[in-house]
Design brief:
CATH topology of the largest domain: Rossmann fold
Strand content: 5-15%
Distance between the termini: 7 Å
Oligomer: single chain
CATH class of the largest domain: Alpha Beta
Shape: globular
Number of domains: 2
Helix content: 40-55%
Amino acid sequence: MSSNSSSTKDLLTVVGARPQFIKSAALTRALSQKGLTQWLVHTGQHADDHMSMDFLVELGVPAPDARISPAQSGRSERLSDMIRGVAEQIERVKPRAVLVYGDTDSTMAGALAAHHAGVTLVHVEAGLRSGDRAMPEEHNRIMTDQLSDLLCTTGPPATEQLRREGVAPERIIEVGDVMLDLALAARETAANLSVQGWPAGNAPVLVTTLHRPSTVDRPELLQGALDALGQWVEVTGGTVVFPIHPRTLKVMESHDMKLPPRLVNPGPLGYLEMQAALCKADVVLTDSGGLQKEAWYQGAPAVILRDTTEWRELIDIGASVLFDPAQLSSHDGRSSLVNHLCNAPSAPPVEGSGLFGEGRAATSLLNGLLQRI
């Protein structure tokens, strides 16, 4: 789409969940170098600022220019409010392009609002597929890719996926992962940063995050995960650092679940503190899409508590392994998870891997964008 002479900003960027705030921080740092202006819209998907704006403050990025306050009573109501709110901001700002990240409901809201307004839509992290149609994220990423004018991929697998789906090559640019840009920039600081709740001594430490509904909304699987973590502590003599997601905590409290000994909840961790935890961790257990990458970026091996992943590259290079959470309902399954954690592979170095842009994704993205808006 040609540039709009009445535009007041080059980009209207839509964010609403933790990974998107982190990605926007990486890109925002590069924007001024390219002479581009941005209007940042916070959809309010994560109403808790520990999951959103605190990341921007910590990383020295200006606060959002606009914030939507959607209904939190249900997904449909929340999505409807976010679409309406983003549409109002597009009408106000008249951007040359709308940029969305990833696969959340905020991504989908931004994509639909931009499409309906006839504004160029840029999707960062296009072409990722887990193959699990039960995941709302899979629906969001597929639909957003279909609506997007410019699809920015993290590497060859995502690019090839889009080509198989019939996306015209001129709509695709391969840029890498902007989260890697930020992780590499933060590595030295993170390595020397203390982490709240971190144990003294040299015993092993496992860092875990659990929040995916398919696991934590099933009490028997969540309890199975807690039991397995308790077994890992008994076997290794180590400690589990477990910043508990609000969704997970709600399920635990409603079913009177208790943390086993030496499972420590430090409360919400900021971006740099989480990177520090990953730098120091002996092993990571997560069901997060973003954290499985961040673990590798900071040198920690990971067990991914899912039966599929959109980041197949991590499995292929041996940086992480999958573990089907359905196994947690049995004693043998919990023991198997402990074995996986005790024998997690050593993470290969990021440098020289040829993956995810190796720290140059934001620059590549903006160079591609400047050629198209």
